[in-house]
Amino acid sequence: MSDSGPVPSSASRPAQSPEPPAQQQWRRVHPVTPFVRGWAVIVALLFVVAQQSFDGVPYGEIVDDLARLWWVFALGVLVVLSIVFGYAALAWRMTSYAVDDDAAHLRKGILFRQQRHARLDRLQAVDVRQPLLARIFGLAELTLEVAGGTDSAVAIGFLRLDDATELRADLLARAAGVKARRAGAGTAGTTAPAVATDDAGTATAPAADAEAEAPRGSVVAADAPDPAMLGATVPAEAPENQVYEVPPGRLVASLVRLPVVWIILAVLIAVGVGVAATRNFGILFSLLPALLGVGTFLFNRFAGEFGFRAAVSPDGIRLRHGLLETRAQTIPPGRVQAIELTQGIWWRGKDWWRIKVNVAGYGVEGTDTQSVLLPVGPRQEALTALWLVLPDLGTQDPAALVDEGLTGDARTDVSFTTSPRRARILDPLTWRRNGFVVTDRALLLRGGRLTRRLAVVPHERTQSLGLGQGPWQRRRGVASFTVHSTPGPISPAVHHLDAPDAARLIAEQAVRARTARAQQTPERWMETVAAVAAAQSDAQPDTEPDTQPDAGPTRPEGDA
Amino acid sequence: MTSIDPAAQPAGPFDPPGVTWDRVSPRLITARLVVLALTFGLPLVACAVVAALVTPWVWIPAGVLAALLLWTVLLVPRQVRAMGYAERDDDLLIRKGILFRQLVVVPYGRMQFVDVEAGPLDRKLDIAKVQLHTAAASTDAVIPGLAPDEAERLRDRLTARGEARLAGL
């Protein structure tokens, strides 16, 4: 049982049938999955068994005892192993997944069965995750993010890496609605009926029977995959162009510049002096927790963002990163809800920026690993990353506008509307930076002086709007404006705006968001790719898609 | 670049022009006062009893509690009167607060679901709370103290309008 090829949902189903009897084809995950998932539990169990067997026995007697009681020990290990193995086999047998044109389905659980259907038109992102152990086995887990709050993702895994990428391409193509078209180009008639078939409800019952019927060992070899699934209908992985990558040297340099490193160094030096003066080495141990904490933070950040590469493909933005656990994220076009560029004062010398995004599926818990669009990069790369998400900022000179947003303030502003001077007493440090500008496509909110930030929210991604005013603000005639975005690292807001400005902004932004939603232009994505490529080669963003007419196939964007 | 039209100057940031606000039921005042009486009144009585029987020092927390109670009792009616909501063609406005004022604009097309809630006290007083949820967790769109009929009507209207203007995320 080395491999989990597709398990046919019906034994009698003829291969390459033009009209498959069941739209859904339930497939199993890789048999090693339970071990990859539960290796820690297994190790712990073995450890407990070993400890129980030797517990209380003085070391010298172990050898004697082993001679007499070896069979007890062996039996214990055997029992534990068989229970674990049986459970794993059962868990594996009970887990299956299927994909049809409307939804992805996952069934799992032994006692508490769980069936999960994720609508593909609500797909927010697809991640292919490879934890260290899975990498050793060449396995990967596919996570479909849908905007359903905590723990709403559908995790299909583990699969062989090739199968996972293939499934990802399939899912994304179906989500984008190009299934019929792309496949139709190759094999004209075969896939047309599949598109029109009904979804989940009707197909689940027969598929459940099929799983029961399937003989235990009926695993089709992977090099003989179902032709209907792989040959005719599965689209090729969409081609991707790498746009930028973060070299490890820059990542390390950026981490070393973080204030936490300087603080811990300063503390270390102070303690070193203290130890030298007092000869009391006990102080060193009191530092250990802090050192461990900082070390863990730095290592996690380094390992998580190591080898960060961003690419564009017709399927969306593709981000790859990770040292031990690798992750390849695909964010389809139009799924980024908000973008924020930040620069702490410690990165100002190098003009490095960090970009995070709000993606509905990632939520708050994925903030540190999944929501990073650019871990650290010079301004030009940051702009490229921004065009990647928002190719058309809806303004004449987007580069100048964004530059103003990144580093400008009230004294140099051309287009930003900033806090009035009377807000200075409320916000002495950043009042010149607080500001907003509205373009045809997006709202840019600027703030922060020591840590500069610029949030960009496309009009059509606005959820709701808020206005707030405290007593001091009222006295000064200013108000704070908030855009409510999906859960994530970014909460776009701009504080202390002139009250009439804020009132007009909230009134007009409501209208703008509505019109933008009404005329979302789905075809934009591929034009974008060309624009990004141009931006990269010219080091100058290209805002007129018309200049790159031959941008390849356009893919209609599904409803977010 | 769209510039902001200076002609659209409203009276105040929390009073957009051409909006007539619907008020919540004054029975919400009673509901809030009952809750206040429980949270401040009971400890106040307890403190007063201890002060009278054990030590006069406990009059200090009792006085603080009494002041808080008085202040909030005076505040609650104004707070409730300051709450308002308005159904516009494409979005719902909710406004609240006197000292800290807030205004939320929720487009109908962005609504994911609508909650109607009424606790035992609310049911006794014949009021209900309507809460709108969008995909953003930060959307704080609650209208407390609606008459149940009005709450149901609002819920149905919001849902109907939301469907008509349905948009993805």
UniProtKB/TrEMBL annotation, chain A:
Transmembrane segments: 35-54, 69-90, 255-275, 281-299
Pfam families for this protein: bPH_2 (PF03703)
Residues of the YdbS-like PH domain: 92-169, 308-364, 431-506
Compositional bias annotation for Low complexity: 1-16
Region described as Disordered: spans on this chain: 1-26, 189-209, 531-560
N-terminal signal peptide: none
Protein name as annotated: Membrane protein
Keywords: Membrane, Transmembrane, Transmembrane helix
TrEMBL record, chain B:
The organism of origin for this protein: Isoptericola halotolerans
Transmembrane segments: 33-52, 58-76
Any matching Pfam family: bPH_2
Highest taxon listed in the record's lineage: Bacteria
Protein name from the UniProt record: YdbS-like PH domain-containing protein
Domain YdbS-like PH intervals: 81-158
N-terminal signal peptide: none
Keyword Transmembrane helix: yes
Keywords assigned: Membrane, Transmembrane, Transmembrane helix
Keyword Membrane attached: yes
InterPro entries membership: YdbS-like_PH
